[in-house]
Amino acid sequence: MTTPSVLCISIVSPDDSLFFIKKYNTNNGASPSDDIEMDSYVFLGIDGFGQGKTFRQSFKNDRFFILFTKDWCNVYGYKAPLGYKIIVIISASTNPPNQSSIQNLCERVKDELFSSFMNPFYSPFAPTTSPILKAKIDQLVSAAFVD
């Protein structure tokens, strides 16, 4: 049984500009076309937030939903307070993660994001350059779905 892994995580600001993106599939021999495809899924995910329920399948929580699925990945969305959106692309596997673990990952990323806003040098709505935030998100992703 294969376990799912996070292929990409991105944070989108309230004006739908990309605030943070990190791809985790580059170590697995991903080609440049895979990288472009991942970017397109992130931007399709951004569009999915505005499409209403026809585009996405909502779960118990209205803030968390699956935006769309492909044969090799699932794209999840989480709408945080203040209009920030978190998009997570997870590999399709024979042992899919439960929804609560993905939602938990999104909520922890949101908590780290909002903690980074307390930095006095933070520039509102500018793409993040904080190495601390990047390291904390990497740590959350590496711990996701580990049994």
Automatic annotation (TrEMBL):
The UniProt entry, under SUPFAM superfamilies, shows: SNARE-like (SSF64356)
Query: Biological process GO annotation list?
Result: endoplasmic reticulum to Golgi vesicle-mediated transport
Checking InterPro entries in the record gives: Longin-like_dom_sf, Sedlin
An example of a Gene Ontology cellular component annotation for this protein is:
cytoplasm
Which protein is depicted?
Answer: Trafficking protein particle complex subunit 2-like protein
